[in-house]
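SAMPLE LOG
Freezer: B-3
Tube label: C17
Construct: single chain, 176 aa
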Amino acid sequence: MPARRQKSWTAEELLTRRKPVQDRVRPSGNSIALWNLTRLFHITGEMKYRKKGEMLIEAFSARVKSAPNSHLQFLNTRSDFADSFFSIVLVGRRESEKIKQTKEFFRKNYMPNRILIFKPGPGSKSEKREEAEIVKVCNYIDDFTMKEEETTIYVCSNLNCELPTTDIEEMKEMLP
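STRUCTURE (predicted):
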């Protein structure tokens, strides 16, 4: 079978090449960009990602309104962007039974509007390095600590956090 030759593009073609705005079999680049910005905002808490997402929504709102069936991934992500989004932060030792149970709960229960973040509790040098790396990205969890040396769960909705709990059943009640 002969090798498939790829088309080479001229500079003019690259500058004017159109990309589809609609979601087809694969979501459009704009839908994926909005999806990534939504998650980056909820992971990091940085408003710059939210503002860029709002700009993207504004830029494509007329096209989306005129043909909503052609922008399903964009609309789905737009819903995540606007509605309550949950960050569940687990603070504790990786091998703890409560961490395993909480992860298992989220594996079995589909919740598209949530992010699970693990922050290691006090421990070895490697855990302290890992904690520093996580806090660098998710700076809003810097003050989250273990309560009474137990795995502690923080449930945050749009970066507003409930009081922490050490009880998985109580955490479940905080979720929609």
